[in-house]
Design a protein that fits this description.
By secondary structure, the chain is an alpha+beta fold. It is built from 3 helices and 5 strands, in the order H-E-E-E-H-E-E-H. Belongs to the snRNP Sm proteins family.
């Protein structure tokens, strides 16, 4: 659960992240919570590409355009919960990730040894 622990540390530090969803909407906010399924809870959010929300509106409603897009309430939200299955990427702040990379390699090496030993 290395990546889960990594995200928990980001929650504790109040990191600012950008969540890109599969429908191309990007939401930036302060990371408030993450669970084991990578469901994400953000506060103080802003929509990075409100024009994309308008484009999705035109596509979904056959050129019927609302002033504030398909989901006008999305532009006025301050807090949100994003289900992990709709997340494409989570853009992280610039961090020193060398320690994370080293720990991943160690866990992978230990996991490989354990699998070989249990197979015998």
């Amino acid at each position: 659960m290395l990546f889960f622990d990594f995200f928990q540390n980001l929650v504790d530090s109040g990191a600012q992240v950008t969540v890109e969803m599969k429908n191309d909407v990007q939401i930036t906010g302060t990371l408030q919570a993450v669970d084991q399924y990578f469901n994400v809870k953000l506060k103080n959010i802003s929509i990075n590409n409100p024009e994309q929300v308008r484009i999705l509106c035109r596509l979904a409603l056959n050129a019927v355009e609302f002033k504030n897009g398909l989901y006008p309430h999305l532009l006025s939200l301050r807090n949100c919960f994003i289900r992990g299955s709709v997340v494409r990427y989570i853009h992280l702040p610039d961090l020193h990730t060398e320690a994370l990379t080293d720990q991943c390699r160690k866990e992978l090496a230990q996991g490989g040894v354990n699998r070989i030993e249990t197979a015998k």
